[in-house]
Amino acid sequence: MLRSIYEYLGGFDWLEISRMAGLSIAVVVGQIAIYVYVRKLFQKKINPFIASRSHEDFKGIKFRNYMLLTPARLLHISLFFSKLSMYVILIFSFYISITLLFGIYPGTRSFAFTLLYGVLDPFLSIIKSFIAYIPNLLRIIVIVAVTHYFVKCLKFISKEVGAGRIIIQGFYPDWAQATFNLLRFLSYAFMVVLIFPLLPDSDSAVFRGVSVFLGVLFSLGSTTIISNLVAGMVLTYMRSFKLGDRVKVGEVLGDVVEKTPFAVRIKTSKKEVVTVPNGALLSSNVVNYSTSGDERSGVILYMPVTVSYDVPLRDAIELITKAALKTENVLDNPAPFVLVKNLGNVATELELNIYTHEPEKQPRIFSDMNGNIRSLFEQNGINMVTPVFGRVFLENTSNPQ
Asked: Residue 260 and residue 232: Cα distance in Å, rounded?
């Protein structure tokens, strides 16, 4: 029996067994050492270094006036990635150690090769695909770079044209920004068209299906947006108005305070801000009072005044004109004039027309003018029929007198 056991054990290569055992111990000890060293490196060196530099390097990330990421949040994110990196290194080292342990023994060596190539094959495949994709990648980089600098050149030219330093015959400076936005959009759209066929698997069924799905969503959900955007471009090139102009759109009368690609904001005399979509502006009649008058005569404002038949017409017209001239922001040259609009059943309906360079102050002008008319009539002993003050109108008309 003892002889049989001795002969069985004698068939083993004890030197090889000792070598494999020693290598196994070395791998285990090495893995423990790597684990201890990596944890100490991150906990004692890297993390304290990140925390110490946070006050100098982490200033936060702002978008306009909104703080997207505070310095404390950036520090928290940096420590998170530091911890994630430590775990990645430890997991990778543990994986290598397991592969080495299985590779030491002949019976498990095939499993070790399976583990090794199970990780290496995807990486090798990625590397080969990346090398094969390098020519297309270089083409994409060139296309993006050319588009980027082309847009920068357009931006510079638009600024110069908008500032009046570059003059293009028949091209107005207020068209510069809108034209730049349009050309920039077209440039980037053309860039996407050129890059799309160069993307990996761009001709696959899945890629085409996603593209068609996104196109359908965009077309169905953006009809109003696109119509307003196009209307905004049309209004810009029509030069219907600019910022600060007093305009009337439907029942809205006020000053243009903001123009966006999709809507225009108008501030009324009551300080109400009305948002009008560009599509509604394009389909409506827009009256611009700021560009209606010339530099000398300005804009005509007019209002109705009703006077009883027992008041001599000449006297009434003289007093109304005098009251208009006493009103602030009313021009005396050209002088105000009065039109006889209608002979009613109980009174004569007159229309007072005045010239002004300040049409945006029309509520105050008409308020003061009404007060002056009533005061002068009372001073001259004239009883007025209760005036019928209609809606204030502004219109650029020539003096018929």
From this structure: 8
Tell me how crowded residue 112 is: count the other CB atoms within 10 A of its CB: 17
| CA 102 distance to own-chain centroid | 58
Task: Chunk the chain into consecutive blocks of 10 residues (it has 401) and report each block's average pLDDT, rounded to whole numbers.
Answer: 45 70 87 92 88 73 69 83 91 86 79 73 79 88 94 90 80 80 88 85 66 62 68 76 82 85 84 85 79 66 86 89 91 90 86 86 87 89 57 40 41
Q: How many CB atoms lie within 10 A of CB 303?
A: 22
Separation of alpha carbons 205 and 200, rounded Å: 12
Q: What is the pLDDT of residues 210-229, one digit of tens each?
A: 666 666 656 655 567 677 77
Q: What Rg do the C-alpha atoms of the chain give, in angstroms?
A: 42
Is the preceding omega at residue 334 within 30 degrees of 0, hence cis? yes
Give the span between the Cα atoms of 126 and 4, in whole angstroms. 56
pTM confidence score: 0.51
Q: Give φ, ψ of 92 to 5 degrees.
A: -65, -45
How many distinct helices (H) and strands (E) make up the chain? 11, 11
CA distance 141 to 135: 10
What is the enclosing helix (H) or strand (E) of 347? strand 347-356
Distance CA 167, CA 175 (A): 12
Distance CA 173, CA 185 (A): 20
381: Cβ contacts below 8 Å, ≥ 6 apart: none
3-state secondary structure of 310: coil
